[in-house]
Amino acid sequence: MICDNKDWLELRRSGGDSIFEFLYVEDAVNGLLAAGQHLRGGTPTYHFSGGSNTRLSILALTKEMSLAFDGRERDIHLNRSNPERKVEKYLRTDATTQELAWKPAWTLSEGLKHTLQWYRQSISHIQSYDEEMGLNN
To answer: What is the CA radius of gyration of the chain?
Structure first.
């Protein structure tokens, strides 16, 4: 884990080449609230898909997380002993933008910083819970 203060991180089951689009949780909540407020009787429903047009590989995201955590670049070790297949998943945001005039407010780096800030504040509670539940690896 990043909080172990190591100079390296390991990606398990991944070569880091899968690509996804990421969305900060507050943006997801605000987008869903906007969609819920927009729905009225007689209004056609549509698939809500809000994204930040931030398409990144897992390897690139891991590097970004390391920098956002404490400004350090770490070596990334790829454990390919049980590899997953490469996946690419993107969100279509054109309907969401047109119908709701909504778009994400947070950049990837801002969202990572806020997520990691929450993580730092919550890690002791998470670890205590894991210990109580016998979930430690």
So the answer is: 18
**In degrees to the nearest 10, what's the CA dihedral of 51, 57, 61, 62?**
150
- What is the chain's pLDDT, residue by residue, as a tens digit (137 residues)? 566 678 898 888 778 899 998 888 998 898 888 888 877 665 555 555 666 667 899 999 999 988 888 888 999 998 878 778 889 888 777 777 777 788 889 988 899 999 988 888 888 777 776 677 776 65
Domain 2-133, CATH: 3.90.25.10
Say what the pTM is. Answer: 0.73
Going by C-alpha positions, the residue among 51, 52, 61 that lies closest to residue 17 is: 61
User: What is the DSSP code string of 32-98?
Assistant: HHHHHHH--TTPPP-------S-EEEHHHHHHHHHHHHHS---EEEEE-SSPPPP-EE----HHHHH
Contact partners, residue 13, CB within 8 Å, separation at least 6: 79, 82, 83, 84
Domain ranges of the chain: 2-133
Please tell me the distance from the alpha carbon of residue 3 to that of residue 102, in angstroms, as a whole number. 35
